[in-house]
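quick one before i forget lol
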Amino acid sequence: MLLFCNVSDRPLLAVVLEVQRGWDTAKRRTWKLYVAQLEAELDVDAALLVYCPNPRIARRYRDMFEFGGLSLTLRPLIFTPSDIPLVVEMDLARANPALAVLSAICHGGDTEVEATFPALAEALRALGPKRAILYYDVVLAGLPVAARTRWEAFMTSTVGHEYHSELFRTLAAEAETRGEARGEARGEARGEARGEAQAILTVLDARGVPVPADARERILACTDLPRLTEWLRRSVTATTLDQVLDD
């Protein structure tokens, strides 16, 4: 969630951010709930911004909300990777670091994503060390594995170091420690999965993301370690549970 305020810190506009990777007809009502609850709590207008990596899924959601019917009308702002420019210009990245980060994430699966790395690194420099750490975590959580590996190699070779928050370093160290013991025995594997699941719930709780009982059981019951690791990465930046669990 983003909150825009005036110089007196009075809220002017709230924006609910959602990443939707799959089709879910329930979103017709749950998205309205997100916006209505935020407007009621903050007494401010709220907008819903939805990122759909799949253009076909995006079209289906746009069609869903084209006609409001008899219920509360919602006009979500739905965008896809094609709506985000490929940011490769240094000046543009320095002036708009958030756009540079969003561009890299949205085009993370494209072959030309590496063209954004120099501009993205420049955007981080412009932010300063403290803010750069937060943005760097967002990039790591948002990039696919292959692109993330190339990005980390780029930062190490050109910048000489990588930005990691204390939370991300701690989670990575714990995951690595757990990973060293994988495959020893079935009981140990179940223990690792349980530890990974608990880490996800701990991060979500610390960031104030609600986790209903059924979702908590789903996370704790999962024994697929790669999936749990991906959920853990997403939980570092997610603002809703859907952003963590959607496949």
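fyi Confidence is low (pLDDT under 50) at residues 181-187.
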